[in-house]
């Protein structure tokens, strides 16, 4: 794929990216998790480094190698991710929430391994809501003009769900992709529409996750004060 010289249009900027998927422990050996590989977030980190940014990558349970030149902060749960992202966001020009954050976590953590009991049905797992990091970042910008970006994987009426989610979260940009059987998870490619709070809609054709990442940075750069 031929690409021109990369613009250093993020030089002097600090960007924070979350990537991967959170895991919510039930006991010392089990968790509720999701299938996010972290690839899109890592591609955002690599492209931001290439464009001159100082990059903090908050990585949730990804097995990918650390992107050269990025500060990597490893987290496990949604609560840990929130803490790391909010801390790094304090002086950030842009925050991109590419991580798949678990909406719920088990209400109780068993300090010892949960055992099955002879002749007993399993106990139901009670869940509680996790904090919504993207909504919080959007509502309480750590700096004026900070650009906040979310990701959404949707099925069915993808654009309608995306537009509603953009409004609900209050972020500046929402990258919407369609998920299905063979789409997106674990893949190195992606296809998306980037929705902006100002109404701009940017379709990104099927291609490498780096290409989508560069479109995201283009749109972020134009919104930086
Ligand atoms: N997100 C977050 N904190 C959460 C859940 C999601 O910051 N507790 C972020 C994700 O990182 C992503 C965006 O919000 O950037 C959208 O995630 P998504 O799961 O699509 O949104 P939800 O509001 O959880 O909607 P749904 O009920 O469709 O899962
Ligand atoms: Ca969710």
Automatic annotation (TrEMBL):
Q: Annotated Gene Ontology MF terms?
A: phosphopantothenate--cysteine ligase activity; phosphopantothenoylcysteine decarboxylase activity
Annotated ranges, domain DNA/pantothenate metabolism flavoprotein C-terminal: 10-221
Superkingdom per UniProt: Bacteria
Its pathway is: Cofactor biosynthesis; coenzyme A biosynthesis; CoA from (R)-pantothenate: step 3/5; Cofactor biosynthesis; coenzyme A biosynthesis; CoA from (R)-pantothenate: step 2/5
Cofactor binding summary note: Binds 1 FMN per subunit.
Q: Which UniProt keywords apply?
A: Decarboxylase, Flavoprotein, FMN, Ligase, Lyase, Magnesium, Metal-binding, Multifunctional enzyme
Q: Which cofactors must be present for this protein to function?
A: FMN; Mg(2+)
Instruction: Please give the catalytic activity noted in the UniProt record.
Output: (R)-4'-phosphopantothenate + L-cysteine + CTP = N-[(R)-4-phosphopantothenoyl]-L-cysteine + CMP + diphosphate + H(+); N-[(R)-4-phosphopantothenoyl]-L-cysteine + H(+) = (R)-4'-phosphopantetheine + CO2
Function of the protein: Catalyzes two steps in the biosynthesis of coenzyme A. In the first step cysteine is conjugated to 4'-phosphopantothenate to form 4-phosphopantothenoylcysteine, in the latter compound is decarboxylated to form 4'-phosphopantotheine.
What's the name of the protein?
A: Coenzyme A biosynthesis bifunctional protein CoaBC
Q: Which residues of the full protein are shown?
A: 176 to 400 of 400
């Amino acid at each position: 794929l031929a690409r021109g010289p990369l613009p250093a249009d993020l030089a002097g900027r600090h960007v924070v990216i979350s990537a991967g998927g959170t895991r919510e422990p039930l006991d010392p050996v089990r968790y509720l998790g999701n299938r996010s590989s972290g690839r899109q977030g890592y591609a955002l980190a690599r492209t931001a480094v290439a464009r001159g940014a100082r990059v903090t990558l908050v990585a949730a349970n990804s097995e990918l190698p650390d992107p050269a030149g990025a500060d990597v902060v490893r987290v496990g749960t949604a609560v840990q991710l929130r803490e790391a992202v909010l801390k790094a966001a304090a002086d950030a020009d842009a925050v991109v929430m590419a991580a798949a954050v678990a909406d719920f976590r088990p209400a109780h953590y068993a300090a010892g391994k949960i055992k099955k009991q002879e002749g007993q049905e399993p106990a139901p797992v009670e869940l509680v809501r996790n904090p919504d990091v993207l909504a919080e970042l959007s509502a309480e910008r750590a700096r004026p003009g900070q650009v906040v970006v979310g990701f959404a994987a949707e099925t069915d009426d993808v654009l309608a769900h995306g537009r509603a989610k953009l409004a609900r979260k209050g972020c500046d940009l929402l990258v919407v992709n369609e998920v299905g059987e063979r789409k997106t998870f674990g893949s190195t490619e992606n296809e998306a529409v980037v929705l902006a709070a100002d109404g701009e809609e940017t379709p990104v054709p099927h291609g490498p996750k780096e290409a989508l990442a560069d479109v995201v940075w283009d749109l972020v750069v134009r919104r930086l004060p």
